[in-house]
Design a protein that fits this description.
Bound molecules: cytidine-5'-monophosphate
Strand content: 25-35%
Protein name: Coenzyme A biosynthesis bifunctional protein CoaBC
Organism: Altererythrobacter lutimaris
Order of helices and strands: EEEHEEHEEEHEHEEEEEH
Strand order of the largest sheet: 5-4-1-6-9-10-12-13
Oligomer: single chain
Distance between the termini: 25 Å
Structural class: alpha/beta
Number of strands: 14
Family: In the C-terminal section; belongs to the PPC synthetase family. In the N-terminal section; belongs to the HFCD (homo-oligomeric flavin containing Cys decarboxylase) superfamily.
Largest sheet: 8 strands, mixed
Shape: globular
Function: Catalyzes two sequential steps in the biosynthesis of coenzyme A. In the first step cysteine is conjugated to 4'-phosphopantothenate to form 4-phosphopantothenoylcysteine. In the second step the latter compound is decarboxylated to form 4'-phosphopantotheine.
Number of helices: 5
Length: about 220
């Protein structure tokens, strides 16, 4: 087989939700099927990359040629991402829970009395921001922004705030969550490129082709 566009490149991807345990039987989480992240991992492998896929709890098969690291919480995901570095490209697709319960109860909390327990939350690490600020920063850092309103404005702000090179904005006000299609806008320092709605695997291929082009441009490492 001939030369592949991402041959010799390490692509690090997060996908799926995180689960933040309250007690042995309960957790809080974000809604995420992991489908878009897994499609991106499959596309990166198909283009010849070495792929590390850090996956939260999802019911999906590991794509061919992908090195999968299963995690549950945001803290575990953060550590797994650090362990998998360095990488040429980071694509953070996971729907990481912003907060976790401040305290984990070793025993199942009981329904007793009248008042439900107060859940005290604390902030999780922002994995995308930490990768962008890392001294081993990948050449290209890509984040996702799932928004229900002001999709592009929020994505542009997020790109700056999180020190990401690209933010892939997707409008999740429709039935994107758990569905097989997605409509995305690629927000970079060059502006916005809006793609048609298409299957998630085609979104993944379109994105990875652009990433391969970017990496082979003269000013890239
Ligand atoms: O701020 P928001 O959660 O919308 O940002 C989404 C982007 O940031 C996604 O790329 C997501 O994977 C990443 N993220 C992260 N760690 C967090 C929260 C979000 O990596 N704790």
């Amino acid at each position: 087989k001939g030369h592949q566009p991402l041959e010799g490149r390490h692509v690090l991807i997060t996908a799926g939700p995180t689960w933040e345990a309250i007690d042995p039987v309960r957790y809080i989480a974000n809604r995420s099927s992991g489908k878009q992240g897994f499609a991106i991992a499959a596309a990166a492998a198909a283009l010849g990359a070495k792929v590390s896929l850090v996956a939260g709890p999802v019911a999906l098969k590991t794509p061919k040629g992908v090195d999968r690291i299963d995690v549950e919480s945001a803290a575990d995901m953060s550590q797994a991402v650090k362990d998998a570095m360095p990488a040429d490209v980071a694509i953070m697709v996971a729907a990481v829970a912003d907060w976790r319960p401040k305290e984990y109860r070793d025993e199942k909390m009981k329904k007793r009395g009248s008042a439900p327990p107060a859940l005290v939350l604390t902030e999780n690490p922002d994995i995308l921001t930490n990768v962008g600020a890392s001294d081993k920063r990948p050449t290209l850092v890509v984040g996702f922004a799932a928004e229900t309103e002001d999709v592009l404005e929020n994505a542009k702000r997020k790109r700056k705030r999180k020190a990401a090179d690209w933010i892939i904005a997707n409008d999740v006000s429709g039935d994107v969550m758990g569905g097989d299609e997605n409509r995305v806008h690629i927000v970079s320092d060059e502006g916005v490129e809006s793609l048609e709605q298409m299957p998630k695997i085609e979104v993944a291929m379109a994105l990875l082709e652009r990433i391969a082009d970017k990496l082979t441009m003269p000013e890239a490492a």
